[in-house]
């Protein structure tokens, strides 16, 4: 991915803190799947989401780097 | 951007919208969709690569989708080799709201695609779904950015097989 620094608008990218990331991950897991973020991670690590293609699962999984 | 996403090596990071919420976009006919973009990447140290180094950003996965405002998926472009799915190549899903219940395809089907760039998703949204762009020179902005992406991308159709 590239950015340009001429007259084009470059959106601000905010790198969240560890606490912000954990909160974001937890909030999204609760919103989309109804479970806390750490519960999702535990289930994920146990392989309970194997071949689970639900958009909500895929979305939360994409956000794992916010949590750990 | 997930913690450490600007500098930390040896770790997968995620870049997505603020609060990981899809962004509403308006079409020319007034219809409003929600656009969701998320990329997983890793900062790779290439000290001997004179062209791409000493550091490059390598995509490790993506999930881009167009949804209705009530979060029903219209179309989604995925690549998640690090996930739990057995389908590890780039692909798309059509939302169930777009499919005939009596048809062959379902939202679960993985429809193979080439690697999908963010620019490609935006161009698709503007050209095909008639999302209204915020700037007149949107096409050239996307082309310039995507040209750079394609110049440096190490694969476009599917990742090279792991022969190790």
Tell me about this structure:
The complex is a heterodimer of chains A (about 70) and B (about 160). Chain A is mostly helical. Helix content of chain A is about 55%, strand content about 0%. Chain A is built from four helices and no strands. Chain A is globular, with a radius of gyration of 15 Å. Chain B is an alpha+beta fold and about 160 residues long. In chain B, about 15% of the residues lie in helices and about 30% in strands. The model of chain B has no long low-confidence stretch (mean pLDDT about 90). Chain B has one domain. In chain B, strands 1, 2, 3, 4, 5, 6 and 7 form a seven-stranded antiparallel β-sheet that branches. At the A-B interface, α1, α3 and α4 of A face β1, β3, β4, β5 and α2 of B.
Summarize the structure.
The complex is a heterodimer of chains A (68) and B (164). Chain A has helices at residues 18-33, 37-45, 55-62, 64-67.
């Amino acid at each position: 991915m590239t950015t340009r620094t001429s007259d084009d608008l470059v959106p601000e990218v905010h790198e969240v803190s560890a606490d912000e990331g954990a909160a974001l991950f937890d909030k999204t897991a609760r919103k989309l799947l109804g479970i806390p973020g750490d519960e999702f991670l535990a289930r994920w690590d146990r392989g309970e989401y194997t071949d689970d293609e639900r958009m909500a699962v895929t979305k939360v999984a994409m956000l794992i780097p916010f949590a750990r | 951007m997930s913690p450490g996403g600007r500098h930390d090596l040896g770790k997968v990071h995620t870049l997505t919208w603020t609060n990981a919420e899809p962004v509403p976009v308006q079409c020319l006919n007034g219809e409003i969709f929600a656009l969701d973009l998320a990329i997983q990447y890793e900062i790779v140290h290439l000290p001997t690569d004179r062209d791409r180094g000493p550091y490059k950003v390598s995509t490790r996965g993506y999930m881009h989708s167009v949804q209705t405002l009530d979060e029903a998926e219209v179309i989604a472009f995925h690549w998640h080799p690090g996930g739990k799915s057995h389908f590890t190549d780039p692909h798309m899903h059509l939302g169930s709201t777009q499919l005939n219940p009596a048809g062959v395809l379902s939202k679960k089907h993985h429809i193979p695609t080439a690697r999908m760039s963010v620019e490609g998703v935006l161009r698709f949204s503007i050209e095909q779904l008639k999302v209204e762009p915020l700037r007149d020179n949107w096409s050239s902005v996307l082309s310039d950015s995507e040209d750079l992406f394609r110049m440096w991308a190490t694969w476009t159709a599917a990742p090279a097989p792991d022969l190790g």
